[in-house]
Amino acid sequence: MNKKTLLLMGIAVLLLSSCVVSKKKYEIAESGRIAALFSRDSLAELLGVSRYDCSMFNDRVNALMTDTALLKGSIRNYQALLASGQNENQKLSANLMEREKTIVELQKMIAEQNQKVKNLLKSVKDALLGFSSDELTVREEGGKVYVAMSDKLLFESGKAIVNQQGKEALGKLAEVLNRQTDIDVYIEGHTDNVPIHTAVFQDNWDLSVIRATSVVRILTETYNVNPLQIQPCGRGEYKPIDVNTTPEGKARNRRTEIIMAPRLDKLFKMLEESGQ
What we know:
The longest helix has about 70 residues, at about 55-125. The chain is of the alpha+beta class. The chain has helices spanning about 5-45, 55-125, 150-155, 165-175, 205-220, 245-255, 265-275; strands spanning about 135-140, 145-150, 185-190, 230-235, 255-260. Strand 1 (about 135-140) and strand 2 (about 145-150) form a beta hairpin. It is rod-shaped, with a radius of gyration of 55 Å. The chain is built from 7 helices and 5 strands. It has 2 domains: about 5-55; about 115-270, CATH 3.30.1330.60. Helix 2 packs antiparallel against helix 7. The chain has a 5-stranded mixed sheet.
């Protein structure tokens, strides 16, 4: 066999080997392609769409994304409302605490006020201890202290000049008033219903007013009670404490009342502020 023949045989063997390798590679590649197609078809079938149309899958994904975005927006709105509600609750809680504080302060002030009245009542009773009940009476009513002095203790019948015994009683009361600078004092003159008409007094109104003024002058001019905390007024026969059909009842109605009222300025101010 010559060299030419050997060369041709070698070339043929190489070509045959190349074809065999290429065919095997082709078969492997084709198997992979078929497997890939089968997997895609299986996925499409599981999702309920065809192998050539995945738009439904995309639509579902988009719908889920849209719903998620809406849900996130709702959550943010709810969180905002919740935060607003918490702020309102904080404001309400702060307001409630402030009101409770005001109530405690008011209760404290009222308790102090009641104690002042009790102390004042005791001081007045102690100061006027030497006088009998038919000459004067002392009582507490509505947060005020009342001293009712009979006309026979202070005045002669039908007159408005305070007598010596009346001055002594007013002097003892003035000692208490001069220690109580935070009270208001009202002097009220009262009469029975027996009409009076003289050169000095036109009627019972006139008599009651002038008697109250006479008491004020004794307290302020003789015993130095502050004129700014005391004022007179006359009630005439129109505020009796007993009947006017008996001598005893008429005697009780002829009286001068000294009314002592602790000032409530701070309490009223706090009430006004709490009502704003």
